[in-house]
Amino acid sequence: MSGAVEAAIFSDPQREYCYLSRVQRYRRIPGGARFSVLTNDDQEMTLDIRFVSTYVVRVRCYRPGREPPLDSPMLVEGALRTAEVRVEAVEGKIIIRSDVLELRVVRRPFHYGVFDFTGRKLFVQQIGDVSDLGLVSLPMGYARDANGRIAFHESFELQPDEHLFSLEQQRGPVDRRGQRIVVWSDDGIGTNTTNVTHHNTPFFWSSCGYGVFAHHSTRTTWELGSPSTVTGSFSVEDAYLDYFLIFGGSPKHILARHAELSSK
């Protein structure tokens, strides 16, 4: 791969960007709920949010009628189970509760957050990263290049004292915050702002008690507090988005739950 500098996820002039804007309707499914969500240009998307276990949430976004496969060689059998949850609509939100976590979906502007039962925020999608020129990072959605190829993206808030870590071998700081990382699950070579990465597990975890595992074998780009210092983002070169949120009180618990999902 050449050493040319690539555009940041949200600043590629060759791409047209869209993002999820408002919930039309939803219905219960095992482990969670399925949402019909409109984008900012009124395209309908399907969003599935399921609890795999009391501590693990799976999020999948795709065009209606084009549901991607649930399984792949990246996953172990336990990744396909679902947990018992309660789903209810409360004051403009759809609440999905496991025994230990509460996931709140706001209908408009669409976004969701995950909280523990004391109300402490664990993970929240980013929709407020703005400047005088408009949005700096975009909410969950997709971008289309000049050839019609789709890449999905996700954005989430970063706390001021939050630290981010990954599994790969690396040069430079152990804390990945402030870095741009490109990985392939087929042991390809990616580049970031500080080093070259050989890595096959698109996964990181946070000092705030959560991990993100992208269930994609294609190229995945992570921007972990760079270029925006208040936002973590990732982009996958697929026509859908599929990732797991893994919660735990310590890195030990997060890594153990990741191992229960992934064959990598």
Find the count of extended strands (DSSP E, 2+ residues). 22
Strand proportion:
over 45%
User: Cα-atom Rg, whole angstroms?
Assistant: 17 Å
Query: Based on CA inertia axes, which overall geometry fits?
Result: globular
Spatial gap, N to C terminus = 24 Å
The low-confidence runs, each spanning 5 or more residues with pLDDT under 50, are 187-198
Q: What structural class is derived from the secondary structure elements?
A: mainly beta
H/E order of the elements?
Answer: EEEEEEEEEEEEEEEEEEEEEEH
What is the spatial order of strands in the main beta sheet?
Answer: 14-18-19-22-4-3-2-1-12-13-21-20-15
| SS element count, helices | 1
What would you give as the CATH superfamily?
glycosyl hydrolase (family 31)
Q: Overall mean pLDDT score?
A: 90
The domain count comes to: 1
Fraction of residues in helices?
A: under 10%
Q: What's the CATH architecture name?
A: Sandwich
User: Given this structure, which CATH class is correct?
Assistant: Mainly Beta
CATH topology: Immunoglobulin-like
Q: How many strands, which pairing sense, and closed or not: the largest β-sheet?
A: 13 strands, antiparallel
Descriptive keywords:
single chain, 264 residues, mainly beta, Immunoglobulin-like, 13-stranded antiparallel β-sheet, 5-stranded antiparallel β-sheet, 22 strands, 46% strand, globular
